[in-house]
Design brief:
single chain; 442 residues; alpha/beta; eight-stranded mixed beta sheet; five-stranded antiparallel beta sheet; 13 helices; 16 strands; 37% helix
Length: 442
């Protein structure tokens, strides 16, 4: 029998109605044997995610305030789900233990992880699957980094005799038994790790959209869905702000050659997006690009100095200043006498003058300035490799909208083009590129 690992996001498990949809999806396919649930998400726009409710409990505990009222709201949320599902299940014992540990300042990672833990127990009860606490199989190192070397044999040993199981996402435990978590959205990563361990045929990631879209629907009206995308392309889009899948979720399944299928819990009949290692040459999309994504909040330090190119160690000295100030470089376009360093503005905020002063002292530039409010766009697509004039078309779409391009950078893989523009032009730039490469083809 084929094996599928299925992960359901918070919006797919926000209440009993959504959980029932998820359960019906799982039961409709015998190969959906391993289930990875998130914590309940928002039921409506002004609602609060359970994970955020738990973070708030931890905050109150750390401030030596009572968590009783805040934690009771969490109990009510879960008890309402259990009641609406008609389950003969009590979580009172678990609630008591969690309340006690949070009050005893077990920490934010422990507190946040309990949303998935409790939802996992509910899902296992509803499905009749075995419940496996992720803390018993997902291993972190003492420094909080994930340990694939310890986790994979752990999982294989546990699951080889387990036909069907629910394993909560987002957390595990370190070698000392302390609960540790991935970054927000980390249930995606858990699902990928489990899919790799059981050598799944497909890793299905169920969310509230019908796959990956070419662009952000908040910016472009009704953007096209992407039917097939490679791991490399999705990695580029995820890094630049596309949020359908946690960027670290790609690595475990990519190494094992397992495809990911992004599906919509509310429209399970739709094919969604398949994420694969390679796409055969005869299956290229009719579009040159696969997707457009971007982020605001960048800044640039622009440096000018005559004969910079012949000065040994110039870049190293500048980078050492940034490193000592905790600033990581995203892009570094340069000319013969010019160098620009682009990084998240948040990393320099509050110490701008100090960093500029240190660079002046290190390399004595002729001119140096800090430029803020920069947005970065990534135009990604395997089709660009075989299509001439892609960069020219990007520039043309910008020129027609009178958008000034501050930077352009293309990697050696020719898989993506990175563009730097002013934040004020961000949304319009995305719409113009979409029109040039998608609407003009249809």
């Amino acid at each position: 029998m084929s094996v599928k690992v299925v992960k359901f996001g918070g919006s797919s498990l926000a209440d009993a109605k959504q959980i029932t949809k998820a359960a019906n999806i799982i039961k409709s396919d015998e190969s959906r044997r391993y289930v990875v649930p998130s914590a309940p998400g928002k039921r409506y726009s002004d609602d609060i995610k359970v994970t955020d409710m738990l973070y708030n409990c931890n905050k109150l505990a750390m401030e030596n305030q009572s968590i009783d009222a805040a934690f009771s709201a969490i109990e009510d949320r879960y008890n309402g789900i259990i009641r609406d599902l008609g389950l003969d299940l009590s979580l009172d014992k678990e609630f008591e233990e969690i309340r006690k540990n949070i009050s005893a300042k077990a920490g934010s990672e422990y507190a946040a992880s309990r949303g998935e833990y409790l939802n996992g127990i509910i899902m296992a009860s509803l499905l009749g699957y075995e419940f496996i606490d992720a803390a018993s199989v997902i291993v972190f190192n003492e420094d909080g980094s994930f340990s694939s070397e310890k986790t994979q044999p752990n999982l294989r040993k546990k699951l080889q005799n387990t036909q069907r199981a629910v394993i909560p996402g987002f957390y595990g435990a370190d070698v000392n038994g302390n609960v540790r978590t991935f970054s927000r959205g980390g249930s995606d990563v858990t699902g990928s790790i489990i899919a790799s361990a059981v050598k799944a045929d497909v890793y299905e990631n169920w969310t509230d959209v019908s796959g990956v879209l070419v662009s952000d629907p908040r910016i472009v009206e009704n953007p096209k869905p992407i039917s097939v995308i490679t791991y490399k392309e999705l990695r580029e889009l995820s890094y630049m702000g596309a949020t359908v899948l946690h960027e670290d979720a790609i690595f475990p399944v990519r190494a094992a050659g397992i495809p990911i299928n992004i599906k919509n819990t509310n429209s399970p009949e739709e094919p969604g997006t398949m994420i694969v290692s390679e796409v055969p040459d005869d299956e290229f999309s009719k579009y040159t690009i696969t997707g457009i994504a971007g982020k605001k909040g960048f800044a640039a330090i622009n440096i000018e100095k005559a004969m910079m190119n012949s000065e040994l160690g110039f870049c190293r000295k500048v980078l050492e200043v940034l490193e000592s100030n905790g600033i990581s470089i995203e892009h570094m376009p340069s000319g013969i006498d010019t160098l620009s360093l682009i990084f998240p503005y948040s990393q320099i905020e509050g110490k701008e003058d100090e960093v500029i002063s240190q660079i002046r002292k290190a390399v004595a530039p002729d001119h140096i300035e800090l430029e803020k409010e920069i947005a970065m766009l990534a135009v990604v697509g395997r089709g660009m490799i075989r299509t001439r004039g892609t960069a020219a078309r990007i520039f043309a779409s910008m020129a027609h909208a009178r958008i000034n391009v501050k930077m352009i950078d293309q990697g050696s893989s020719e898989l993506n083009v990175i563009i730097g523009i002013g934040e004020a032009d961000f949304e319009e730039a995305i719409r113009r590129i979409y029109d040039m490469f998608i609407n003009s083809v249809d």
